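Appendix C reproduces, verbatim, an entry submitted by the partner laboratory led by Prof. M.T., so that reviewers can inspect both the input and the predicted structure.
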Amino acid sequence: MLPDVSFGRASVRDYLDIGCADGSITAAIGESLGLGKDHIFGCDVRDLPPEDEMMKRFQFKHYDGVTLPYCDGSFDVITVFMVLHHIPEIEPFLKEIVRVLRRNGVLIIREHNCTPENVRIFLDVQHGMYALVLQPVVETPDFCTTFQTFFRSKEEWSELLEKAGLSVVTEEDEDAENLDTVVAINEEDETEVLLDEKNEDSFLC
């Protein structure tokens, strides 16, 4: 489920999934790391009802999409899957992620790699189909007037990561639907990043 990275599961004390939705992936990853409910965390801009069954498997927090509701240096592993292209102020948000990541911690980001440029148009149509047609309940009826995306190429994502204090250390190509996976390790004052491409991006920090 996780990329092959150079950290031992035994060294992971606390895990956070940003943009966790219903928490099913959050709980599965946390449990695969050998963690109990009290050490698996997820946050999302959409709230989860307290009676939701998934709440028995992880610690959920509703947040504003800007400031992560956690103390500095709280997590050994953070995942952010298909979330960052919805964030308008991306640089401050990346700094927020680095703030809550422990030294020697790992950040995994998965995002669209929008190369060539016209991939962005296809992805907007895909988001519209998901929001208005494929969901059993329409979550965003005003999608066509309010929806925003901030797609980037792999190179643009890499530049943003480096600007946030991260450095790319490994890169692997995969022939799949425009996805990239990047792994970064936060070592002292540096974070090393491993890139694994696909036309979505994943990053570990």
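The beta strands are 15-18, 40-44, 59-62, 75-81, 101-112, 166-172, 179-187, 190-197. Additional entries are available on request from the coordinating office.
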